[in-house]
Amino acid sequence: MNAPARRRSSWLRAALSKWRGIWGPILGTVSARLPPWGSTHIIIRPVSGGFSADLYVPYWKKVTRVHWREESSSWQPEAPFRRLARTANERPIILELPPELTLAQAITLPRAALTNLSEAIGYGLSSWSPFDADEVYVKGRVDEVQAEHARILLTYARKAKVDPLLARVAATGFPADHLILDMASNQVVALSTPKLARLRKNRTIDGALAITALLLALLLGSLRVTVLSQKLTEAEGLLRTELAQFRQAEALQAAYASFSTRQAVVSERLAREVGVYEILAALGRHLPENVLIQALEIDEVRGRIDLSGADPEVTLSGLRHIPVFRNLRIEPPTDQGIVTVIFETDRIRS
Length: 350
Prior knowledge:
By secondary structure, the chain is of the alpha+beta class. It has 8 helices and 16 strands. Helix 5 crosses helix 6 (225-272).
């Protein structure tokens, strides 16, 4: 092979490799990688040099992907990252473990153990594997059920291997609250540590309640225990009510802003469109007095008017003064003297 041919071959291999790296995870294996949630969520996957984060929305459509490069300690591209960061405050963040960190095993349990499968797995894990239950993240899936026994497929990963990976993910600003042990069988483990944003919110509310309760206890210390208990209960209820009203006010403010935006859009559209009654009024102004409207039919793009007692040339001249009509065409009068006008329009309001 000569030098130009080798260069073309090398360029083609590089292009195909780049195409597979960009579109392969989306088009080639998307059906096999669907997560078990129907709501918006974020999946983080380890990749060479860092992590990738994908934002999924209902109906399993991936809309945003960003990459974390450990050498630069930043998420790129920046604009999709900002959108993903806003979503991460209220949505699950799931870390998909690479296959080399997980182990799979099939076991047989009594059928009665299916009533509390997770407890049965934790109790017997040390006898099926070299690990104790507190040393691994484990999930079981029922594969087959017989008369007295059930076959369970176990997937587990050692915490000694996974916890450093979780720490690296948390350092990117997206602490994971779920682990995917096996995407194909939807083996998902919920972590006991809640996400940092939720902790901060709960800590703020709990701190406000604790301070308020302490102040009330100092002020009402001379009263009887029963009165103190009643007052504390009322104060806590009032504080919770005020917090709920505050959140409701925030929601109403957001809804009002959204309504104002939609109202502006509708007003702009109404300013550009006319309704059927305005068309009838325009016809009354521009048609001769002896012309009667027998029928008016309008759809989204075209319409027709049946007129009686109309002179075709005079009628056409009058209709040309109505700005929403275009491509006017008059059909020959019928035996009953009906003149049909055909027109096109895209400014009719239903």
